[in-house]
Amino acid sequence: VTVFLSTLTPKFYFALTVTSSFISGLIFVFEWWHFRKYGTSFIEQVSVSHLRPLIGGAESSAAAPVTFSASSAESETNRQNLPECKVWRNPLNLFRGAEYSRYMWVTGKEPLTYYDMNLSAQDHQNFFTCDTDALRPSDTVMQKAWRERNPQARIKAAYQALELNNDCATAYVLLAEEEATTIVDAEKYFKQALKAGETVYRKSQNCHSQSPQHEAQLRRDTNVLVYVKRRLAMCARKLGRIREAVKMMRDLMKEFPLLSMLNIHENLLEALLELQAYADVQAVLAKYDDISLPKSAAICYTAALLKARAVSERFSPETASKRGLSTAEINAVEAIHRAVEFNPHVPKYLLEMKSLVLPPEHILKRGDSEAVAYAFFHLQHWKRIEGALNLLHCTWEGTFRMIPYPLEKGHLFYPYPSCTETADRELLPTFHEVSVYPQKELPFFIHFTAGLCSFSAMLALLTHQFPELMVVFAKAVSTV
């Protein structure tokens, strides 16, 4: 190189820099075009050609029949007539006083947005109030309490309701959620709420057929009882009494089977995973991972985790590229692809490529808020299974090669909603960087070729302006 550069003349060096700038520019343009059309870097695709048997096996296997097709998903959404970006109550939401408030005391950051808390206020009014509340002074006070924006005002109203009626279950619920600063204190309040709620529920059952008002009161009392039992089960789970929590959840699901919309089965799945009762987890999935039921990240990724568990311990990308994928490995890869297509934000949290925040009280299915809520509770379950995160790391990006880009249609599910970013920004705190999809991150080689093109163009410009100086500079660099 030194001998070659020592023979350069200013004109020849200028021609060389212009040529290299032109070539690097062409490479950059081609890389950009290939990325825009196919959603992947051409250089990167070629550089991993030794993994092509692995990728090809996964892609060819995706052509096999699946249990949840795009057409069936579209018919399901038409049947349910749900809006595209419906916000759901987070089945695993934390306790306001014992968890969210403690985080704010330590960090000084608000973990919940006003929009999220406003949705919770609406939920409380729908769950815990009815038209007959005006007949009971304590319920009238609580009806106003759920509308209060100030937490201290709500707590004060709850105590006023208890002064009027010591068996006001909803007052104990509010104190458990917002005044209790530990899970132990919250559990004490919920036990008092359970005792009061069961008494009122039995009375409502005896007279619910007398009038529409009594039926509305029974629905309200049912909601209170289910909410209290569910939160008691979650307290037991958080305090380490996991088997007790599982029993409470199972009993609750048997007693109120029509309240599946509350997604209690997701609480049950998480508790069973903590017990490592994988056979029981599979039994729950067999019931709820059904074409007629709405999907969730908990359902899809738990199904993927169970299939990955069967092969992850012995899985190696190098070995798989040589011998190809086994049937069990193909099933695991397909399950991961299915989960990633449903919610593409989850893998970065599970692989700790992005930091977590406290999950919001409401989530948007297939959105970043759901990914945060899922990973917050399930990351430990993926870490517990040896090799599961490695398998996820090796295969999750393959999903994006199978989905049309730009997204005209889905592959296994209906097309990804375009409104998730706006809703997630309302649900997640301002200090959290919201993930956006289908916007794809530019691959490294596009940045590299852009930098190479810019550097070559700068060299050509400097050579044109200072030809002799640049030749001397090139010779000096080559000598060094």
UniProtKB/TrEMBL annotation:
Coiled-coil ranges (or none): none
Q: What is its main location?
A: membrane
List the Gene3D superfamilies hit by this protein, alphabetically: Tetratricopeptide repeat domain
Q: Where is the signal peptide?
A: none
Q: Which GO terms describe its cellular component?
A: membrane
Bilayer topology annotation:
Multi-pass membrane protein
Is the keyword Nucleotide-binding assigned to this protein? no
Recorded family membership: Belongs to the ST7 family.
Instruction: List the protein's name.
Output: Suppressor of tumorigenicity 7 protein-like
In which organism is this protein found? Tinamus guttatus
